[in-house]
Amino acid sequence: MKTYLIYCDESVSHGEFFSNFYGGALIDESQKDQIEFSLNQKKSSLNLTGEVKWSKTTEQYLEKYISFISEYFNLIRSGKIKIRIMFKQNINKPTHLTLEQQQNEYLLLYYQFFKNAFGLKYCGASSSNQVRIIPLFDQMPDTKEHIDKFKDHIARIPSMSDFNHIIINRDEIAEIDSHKHVILQGMDVILGAMQFRLNKEHLKKNSDTGRRGKRTIAKEKLYKHILYEINKIHSNFNIGVSTGFRGSQNALWNHPYRHWNFKPR
């Protein structure tokens, strides 16, 4: 049985222009060791001994982070890692939400991201060729009760008609520590870069000097390199809109890299 791992994380929930950022990295379980070896070997060669995170981007580490993310995108372009980024533009406001929906916005949107962003219904699963999905979420900032209910909903996805040849075992849905998972670390850098640029944080200036700080400048340079890598996959890529299907809904599954600007009904 084909088995895929989906690593998921979330970023800023309330930004100036865009909010509710979610990111995911999908890999074939059989390639996990090879992918981790490549990324950890790159980290070792760069003397990056700690966790790679967007928030740790500095002028001092910029070239190392650029080199690491280039290796990460090599794996994306080769089809070994699929990346999905979801966010919501603040001007698109949902209406008629219940109080419960408002209070549970974080997990409700997380569920939509997991179920739909990777195009799981187009993964090729069939009655004779079932596909197993193992969801791995970075530790979630919510109550145990809410997280358990969220996991229950994730486990019930295969009961839906479009997903009934997919297997998700409730006891395999896990929260993980990103410090121990280099695949999640690379995705965190990409997710952070998108949030940074969409919320125009590259323009922020120090109130005392009236100039941009060195860390802000370093982050903008890293973002520009990430966009350069994305444009090798999708030319003239617009980070603020949903990536097109290029003729087929199967692109939701087949594309190595996609964005989803979530618009509530």
Name its key features.
265 residues, seven-stranded mixed sheet, 8 helices, 37% helix
Radius of gyration: 18 Å
Shape: globular
Mean pLDDT: 93
Regions with little confidence, pLDDT below 50 for 5+ residues: none
Distance between the termini: 36 Å
Would you give the CATH topology? Nucleotidyltransferase, domain 5
How large is the count of helical segments?
Answer: 8
CATH architecture: 2-Layer Sandwich
- The percentage helix is 25-40%
CATH superfamily: Ribonuclease H-like superfamily/Ribonuclease H
> What is the number of beta strands?
7
Order of H and E elements: EEHHEHHEHEEHHHE
Q: What structural class should be given to the helix and strand makeup?
A: alpha/beta
Largest sheet: 7 strands, mixed
Give the total of domains.
Answer: 1
Beta-strand content estimate: 15-25%
CATH secondary-structure class: Alpha Beta
